[in-house]
Design goal:
Number of strands: 6
Shape: globular
Strand order of the largest sheet: 1-6-2-3-4-5
Strand content: 15-25%
Order of helices and strands: HEEHHHHHEEEHHE
Oligomer: single chain
Distance between the termini: 46 Å
Helix content: 25-40%
Radius of gyration: 17 Å
Length: 249
């Protein structure tokens, strides 16, 4: 049977707010554009604490080398499952579903869990996922009709034309969430969830420390590794889009 391949989503607040609402996230939360990682005045529109960051990043040669080196030291299969699993992680088996899986990672982990509507599709997906191992969890999501309907309902949303090839400049969706006092990097094409370090109670995913351990780590890799394109190869060449999940203002 041919693998499912969807249309890759655009990473902007309008698309992801629609998708989150369709799945069953409370309207008390919403996604906001992140205009800067360094200028506080450009982050002032985002209520704090920020509960998750969802980023789409091009796979540069430097980041690709780092990913392969990191994943090479891991077990062939992620073995986490059950109620004591620090975060719920999905292995991606649906082509170009990285945006909707990134959204899922952002809202079913950490403080956002408290904003999932009871009896919603999102609540059901989370409940069914918890006891399953990596393979059965991925299969459950692959066969989830509500998840597929939700994704397809927003395929045509966004500021740019839908991209049936799923290329979008080779971007990878990555979610950063705080759970159990740790920063987690969640991406369905990796070998499992990645713990990036500890955060204090008052630090959220937009705190300087979280940014240094998360998205800025990737920017630094790109700058030190020669960049992903033409020019001088500096971090400014890494074009990425970042949105943050927080309370509705």
């Amino acid at each position: 049977m041919e693998q499912k391949r969807w249309i890759m989503l655009e990473n902007n607040p309008d698309v992801m707010n629609q998708l989150a609402t369709k799945l069953g996230l409370s309207s008390d939360l919403q996604f906001y554009d992140v205009y800067s990682l360094d200028a506080p005045e450009l982050l002032a529109h985002i209520p704090r604490p920020a509960l998750a960051l969802l980023v789409i990043i091009p796979l540069t040669p430097a980041w690709d080398r780092s990913r392969k080196a990191e994943d090479a030291g891991k077990e062939p299969y992620y073995t986490g499952s059950g109620p004591d699993e620090p975060v719920i992680w999905f292995k991606q088996t649906i082509g170009h579903a990285c945006g909707s899986i990134g959204l899922l990672h952002s809202v079913i982990n950490g403080p956002a869990v408290d904003f999932i509507e009871p009896d919603s599709d999102l609540a059901a997906i989370r409940s069914r996922a918890i006891p399953l191992d990596m393979t059965n969890r991925a299969e459950m999501l692959y066969n989830s009709e509500p998840f597929e309907r939700a994704h397809k309902s927003v395929e045509q949303a966004g500021d740019s034309a839908a991209d049936p090839t799923g290329e979008r400049e080779g971007g990878h969706f990555v979610s950063f969430v705080k759970s159990g006092g740790k920063l987690w990097e969640l991406e369905g094409s990796r070998m499992g969830p990645l713990e990036r370090g500890s955060l204090a109670d008052e630090e959220d995913v937009l705190s300087p420390r979280a940014l240094d351990m998360g998205i800025k780590r990737i920017i630094k890799l790109n700058a030190e590794g020669g960049g992903g394109g033409g020019g001088g190869g500096g971090g400014e060449d890494l074009r990425f889009s970042c949105i943050a999940l927080a309370r509705r203002s």
